[in-house]
Amino acid sequence: QQSELDVLLKKNKIFIALSHTDIVFNGATVLENNGYFQIRLRDNDSLRVSPDYFVQYQWNGVLGLQNRALAGVNSRFRFWDDKTDDLYTSLGVFYEFERWNPFLENYAFGGTDLQEVNRSLIRLNMTLKTAINLNNGLDFSAITYIQAPLNAGVENILNPRWFLDAQLNFHLNRHLDFQIKYNLNLDFLRPLPIDSYFYSSTLGCRVKF
Q: Whole-model pTM?
């Protein structure tokens, strides 16, 4: 499930509310439960440089991430934005609080002498986002995040967390899109004994109102 609500405000500002959840059941057993809720406030692409404020709540039971709450601000820079493609980048900082719990029902990794971990980090945040209109019925979009912890030692600053989210959108009609999505997640600073690298590919539909 993925949803987005955009509200235009005065002075060309925009309020954006996003949500994404993935839940998989095998009978009464939860095999997968992850997602996030996000709120942003920024300029509606009218300025070349502008602030981008955001808060987010996130969870991933398979990884043992019971919850992650974060808040921060980016300086958003527009390289270009026209009818066929765009390119944006941003640089900022955010604070995050995480609760890792290996005793969650759908935690998928082993280990001995595990315990819950609470962690607070300040991260430098760098993003790059693009969208390309390939033809009238097809477009491609991608966004990548590089997030380096500033209070966890020099060696971890040099090994930042990296996300990549890319998708192809096939426009079937005014209200329905078919999507192919690819996600990458690389993080060497996980507090539980789980893999540092994950990826996923999904198929889905998007309904527009």
A: 0.88
